[in-house]
Amino acid sequence: MSLCKKLIITLLFYSSQLLLAQNPYAIVYDKTKGFPSNEIFDVLQTDDGMIWYATSEGLSSFDGNVNKTYFCDAQTSLAGSNIQKDRFGRIWYENFDGFLYYLTNDTLKNINQNPPITYITYGITQYHLFVVQKNGIDIYDLQTLKRIKTLQIETLQIESACSDNQNYYFLCKDILYKINDALTVIKNHVNENKSPQFSSILVHDSSIFIIPKGEFTKNLLIFNTNLEYVSTQNIAETHFVNGLDFIDNQLWLYSNNGSFVYAFKNGQLTLTNKFFPTYKISKVIKDYQKNYWFATLNNGLMLVSNLKNKELNIANVAAHKILNTPKGLLLATFDGDLILKDKTGLNKLFQHPLNSNIYYIYHDSESNNIFYSHIGFNVLPNGNIAKGIHYNSALKKVIKVDQKYYAMAMSGYVTLYLSPTAKSSTQSDWDTYFKNHIDPENANFSAIENKIRAKSLAYNPSKNQLIYASNTGLFSINPSKKEELRLNNTVFHAKEIEYFENYFYVLSTKGYLYELDSKNKFKLLNKTFNLDQYAINQLKLIDNKLYFIAGTYIYEYDLHSKTLRTLNFRVNSNAILDYDKKEDKLVLLTSASLLEFDLKNQNTTSQNIKFKFNKLEAGDKIYLANNIIQLKYDNNNIKMNFSVFDFGNGIPNKLFYKLNNDEWIPIDKEQRDLQFLKLSPGSYVLSIKLNNQIVDKQLKFTIAAPIWRTPWFIVSCIVFTISLLYYYYRWRVKTISNEFKLKKAKLQLEKELSQSVLTSIKSQMNPHFFYNALNTIQSFLFTNDKRNASNYLSKFSKLTRMILEMSGQETIKLQEEIEALKLYLELEKMRFDEDFNFDITISELVDLEMTKIPSMLIQPYVENAVKHGLLHLEGDKYLSIQFTLDGKDLKVTITDNGVGRKKAESFKKLKSDVHKSYATQANLKRLELLNRGNRKQKPIEITDILQNDVCCGTQVILYIPIS
């Protein structure tokens, strides 16, 4: 008779069956986890590891960390289903209006589509896309997405469709169609006798499975791929079938009352399992890590890493402690209930009337004695509640010493307790000690230590050694000796103790776990486990393994092999109230659930983790991480996003990255972005190491150098610089050569100037001038014109003196040159009697004192005007000299009203003693030398003054550089 039945019969307690269905333990992704909707219509995993799902809000992706929903302007509605991936990497889905959309380069697009009837599954084969529309079935070239053909088929009666890599199948009324990639149409009747409508069709290997439409479906039709009827199979009653697939070589049906799994062998279907009967299942897939994804219409997307891991919802039970017994799991609640979970469900054994918390429970499987703390503590001999014994002390822990005694840690003392089921004839090594320390108030207790707060204890039967922890330290006792155990000669405070094969495992109040050997030497295991202090709690010894919780993970330490294993459970350890082991399952108790995890067949996914670079952001641009990314030099602030596809793994991955040949740098376990600021121009390779394995995928990008750092620019600059230096060298050589030539020319100029000056002096002091002057003086004397003779002689002598003085100077003041000219012209006027007049005009801009010109430069041209132009003129003779500024030059204009150059030349030829004009030639040479390099125009301009084509004078213009 079971423990449950004994208690019911003995105490006439009622037993309430709390039969609750067990579902696989699932991680639920819904709106609380950032999903756009709890209504999931379809789910698909692509070969890169990404999970794609369709909801009432459209097409979304999920990498285990980030959700992303895709939109485009052409969407007539968002809700849809039937996610597929084609051989070109595009992701497709169809909204419930019947319009198709595909995702390429992270952008959702639509196709050029004829109006559809409604939502009817499209088909993708290797080369074609099949789309049902009002007037037939449109066939597109899958690569170009151009419509190539329309099959004229009555589409209003099409009910369901599907495709494989080569063919598109659909049901129209009671006819099954197949269109292959050669676009050949094959058809056959499904049932000659008015077959019902069909809701789902599936092709697997050489079979076609068809589910009739109806609120409750009991049959499934099977055809071969030649469209020949094979059989009709009875299936479990399903409520609205939403789809079907083959997973693990079994047929899975998805319905509004769960998912049904059938073995398909020898053409027969056999129901093998049923999952989530209270959920509306729309799709199930198995990912590459062997996780199962259940898409539901009412509970989001559920991830099941192991179908053997179970979850029992006990939210209304309020269990606090759990203990495995041969009869089942014993649950103690906050309300003072003891509940047994066995194969029949949950059975309430006992309810304390005070509804007080049961915070400790112990079961001796040999004697069936039960101890539990509840307003003091209670002992149930042989599990018999009717014979239960109550004590007022708060019980912390019970261990079995031998067949006769238990050791107890209680609030106030540590004691030996005589088993209520022990036989009087039973002998124990502790008998003497028990008698010597028996409690005078209760003969079943023998105090080991009083007036302490005992916390835990453990017993080594081979040495009769009991170790207990209290607020005063850690102590060891045997029947004859008691001693304190110290660590580094200091008091050791422990909160939990376990024993296994001559070793005690002691957990300190600070979260350090020590191994204590037979010589009472401590060994710290935290360092061995690579766990921090304050990390370990809830230590339990079950069989030959030590279990404990550290951080957010549950660990299993095999005491035989000395190996530590992190249990791959995706459970928040902070939510675990208690745990125990049942056969090969670890049972975890939370406030809302009772979880059973398979310890033998854990879904180890650490070798099947996929990594993907998603995108790279630089500046305001986003680049897909497909090929080598080319960036401009000023786009050197990089943000890179990646995904790690490891869905069912409860153990965190260790991620590292390095750029080029730098050191490996760790990445936080929740981090999915890497940022690099102010990168220098160059080529970069970003590598990732995942759990000490280097990922074969690398992100390559290049930051272009600025134009002034590009090779061609540098080469151009070098060539330009060399050319510049070369031309500079040429220029300098030429300049030096020119300077040399100029110096040489200067020397020649100085020589020529000297000769020109001498020539001018000679010309101005030529014998004709002196002869004419002396003749003029003599004529004044003959006529006894002493006054004019004296005046003329005075001016002649003054002019001669000035000429001699100026001949020794390179430059003279303009004032001095004008005075010399006036003296000369006055002398010439005296020779011409009263018919010769002259005029000298000076511009106000000309500074006579500051302006300097070469000496004796103007006089020869004035003399030429008098001798050759005016001398042969009959009548009034007039000479005008004007001094003005022309830029940086002094402009001297000499104008006469003489006979002109042509007539003057004819008069010269009549003379036998033709005077050679050395002065004008010398001065012309001087002017050319003075203007060399300074002017482009001629330094002297001589023009005839014409009136009615008759020459009536000559004009000479001199340009003299001034300083």
- Rg: 60 Å
Overall geometric form: elongated
Q: Tell me about the biggest sheet?
A: 8 strands, antiparallel
Average of per-residue pLDDT values = 86
- Category by helix and strand content: alpha+beta
How many helices does DSSP assign?
A: 10
Number of strands: 74
Estimated share of beta-strand residues: over 45%
Instruction: List low-pLDDT spans.
Output: 1-19
How far the N terminus sits from the C terminus, by CA atoms, comes to: 140 Å
How much helix, percentage-wise, in residues?
10-25%
Structural overview:
The chain is α+β, with helices and mostly antiparallel strands and 963 residues long. Helices cover 17% and strands 45% of the residues. Strands 39, 40, 41, 42, 43, 44, 45 and 46 form an 8-stranded antiparallel beta sheet that branches. Strands 60, 62, 63, 65, 66 and 67 form a 6-stranded mixed beta sheet that branches. Strands 1-30-57-56-55 form a 5-stranded antiparallel beta sheet, with no helix packed on it. α5 packs antiparallel against α6 and α6 packs antiparallel against α7 (814-831). The N and C termini lie far apart (140 Å).
Key features of this structure:
963 residues, alpha+beta, eight-stranded antiparallel beta sheet, six-stranded mixed beta sheet, 10 helices, 17% helix, 45% strand, disordered N terminus
Indicate the topology.
Blueprint: H1 3-11, E1 23-24, E2 27-29, E3 40-45, E4 51-55, E5 58-62, E6 67-70, E7 80-85, E8 91-95, E9 100-104, E10 107-110, E11 123-124, E12 128-133, E13 136-141, E14 147-151, E15 158-163, E16 167-172, E17 175-180, E18 185-189, E19 198-204, E20 207-212, E21 216-224, E22 229-239, E23 241-247, E24 250-255, E25 258-265, E26 268-275, E27 281-286, E28 292-296, E29 301-304, E30 310-313, E31 319-325, E32 328-333, E33 337-342, E34 345-351, E35 360-363, E36 370-373, E37 377-380, E38 389-391, E39 395-400, E40 405-418, H2 431-436, E41 438-439, E42 442-460, E43 465-470, E44 473-478, E45 481-487, E46 490-491, E47 494-500, E48 503-508, E49 513-516, E50 522-524, H3 526-529, E51 536-542, E52 545-550, E53 553-558, E54 563-566, E55 576-582, E56 585-590, E57 593-598, E58 610-618, E59 621-624, E60 629-631, E61 638-645, E62 655-659, E63 665-667, E64 673-676, E65 682-690, E66 693-694, E67 699-703, H4 711-764, H5 767-782, H6 786-806, E68 811-813, H7 814-831, E69 836-842, E70 852-854, H8 859-870, E71 877-886, E72 889-896, ...
Parallel strand pairs: 60-67, 69-71
Antiparallel strand pairs: 1-30, 2-29, 3-4, 4-5, 5-6, 7-8, 8-9, 9-10, 11-12, 12-13, 13-14, 15-16, 16-17, 17-18, 19-20, 20-21, 21-22, 23-24, 24-25, 25-26, 27-28, 28-29, 30-57, 31-32, 32-33, 33-34, 35-36, 36-37, 37-38, 39-40, 40-42, 41-42, 42-43, 43-44, 44-45, 45-46, 47-48, 48-49, 49-50, 51-52, ...
